[in-house]
Amino acid sequence: MAIILKIRGIYSTALTRFFLDQGFRVALPSGSIAERFGVSPGFDVLQAPDVEIRDLDGKQGVLLEGQKEALDAMTPRVKICFYDAVTRRKAEDILEIEFPLVSKSRLDEIRNAVVPTLFHHHRFKIIASDQVDRMEENRLAEFPERRGALSCAMEKEWIWDRYEKGKEMAIEHVKLDGRVFHLSEGEIVAANFEKKNLILRRSKFKGRSNYDGLEITKQEGDYAVSEIREGEWSYRHTYFRAHGEKIGTYNNVNTPVEFYPDRIRYVDLELDVLQFPNGRVEVVDEGELARQFDQGYFSAEMREKAIKEAWRLQDST
Questions:
Q1: Do 50 and 70 contact (CB within 8 A), yes or no?
Q2: Would the pLDDT of 265 be above 80?
Q3: Segment 49-58, tens digit of pLDDT
Q4: Partners of 185 in the β-ladder
């Protein structure tokens, strides 16, 4: 007997298409979903759903509540199609799925096969939901061939035009279990829309008296230059003393970085690549990556991506 899902929220169109294609059924579709899909043999308006799906707070993914067997059947399908997705089993009947950048892009394409959809649609919905709807309904629907141009214009207007020199940017360092750590903010030194690159200067360090991993004591006047490129599987902090002496480099391996008007966001994959003052380069926390994989947070493909990125950094740092 097919598993029946009830889906609501900003991911509803894409996830309805995805799960219908996977052989699941969808219960009680909303008016907009029914209109977009028309008469479909996959809809079931008579049976109660086995699993209900709705947006997480912050809309970075979805919360699934329902039968354990149904959640067990859904999880591997999600990991195969959305290989950078992070799955968090909160209880036997509760599952969280976070969709980082690659997953959001894949969901954009699935949605676009149903209704005209901007590139970055699901990220844009987090930033400016009503404007996205108006743009897609009033302009993209009439001129679908302009998808690329309209998406680029919206990305520049809603994100990059807000990156003024000196503006403070937050860094959302998300752990695999869902905890969000806010690293010290950085002032924008440079922003390049064409290269999707930001350079931040950070001097308001939080937390411990030593720099993580490097075991170097923080001193008054220290600062870091953080180089961040959207979509990369890592980014780099280079630490300096007040007079400009370089004291170490810390490369964080993570899901592809996403840019928002006031912050960057990624999920930390535990691996780090450090360069010490004497030039020695070291990959750390490989055991922690393996432990988190064993706990089911991410796919084997993402584990391989993280390991290859660490090796690349080790060779190039």
A1: yes
A2: yes
A3: 999 999 999 9
A4: none
- The CA distance from 252 to 255, in Å, is 10
User: What does the pLDDT look like over 162-216, one tens digit per residue?
Assistant: 999 999 999 999 999 999 999 989 999 999 999 999 999 998 776 667 777 777 8
Question: Between 8 and 35, whose confidence is greater?
Answer: 8
Which whole-number Å values give the CA distances from 197 to 73, 83, 103, 188, 238, in the listed order? 39, 24, 21, 11, 16
Query: Which domains does the chain carry?
Result: 4-103 (no CATH), 116-158 (no CATH), 163-316 (2.40.380.10)
φ, ψ of residue 35 in degrees (nearest 5)? -70, -40
* Tokens linked to 88: 């968090």
Burial of 79 (0-12, 13-18, 19+ CB in 10 A): buried
SS3 category, 279: coil
CA distance 92 to 76: 16
Inform me whether the pLDDT recorded for 252 exceeds 70.
Answer: yes
